[in-house]
Specification:
5 helices
Amino acid sequence: MKGVVVAAVSIALSCASTAVAQEGARIYGMGARECSGFITDVKTQPNLGLSYFSWAQGYMSHRNTIEKEKTGHDVDLTPKAFDYTKQYEAMGNFCVINGGAHFVDAVEAVYERLRALDAVSS
């Protein structure tokens, strides 16, 4: 258990650099990691995928809060057609194609896909 905590802290510290999301806000934590680093992290320590996806879920949940305040409508983050496994795979695919982007950009791409799916089903 201590090893897992040390590994998580090490990754968090290595991700301490910032990324800039599309709106210009500074992003910290797993989202600030470059996609190439995300790919390396999950290849060498697959259990880190849960940490990345947890960060992504928190980020998208916050986006939903803002969306609800602005438009009165939020996005379904758990549609059956695009479940958690497919969302995580899409983030990974984005990062394989866009190694120089940041993980937050992969999360943004998934959020926009969820928004499009939600618009079709509404």
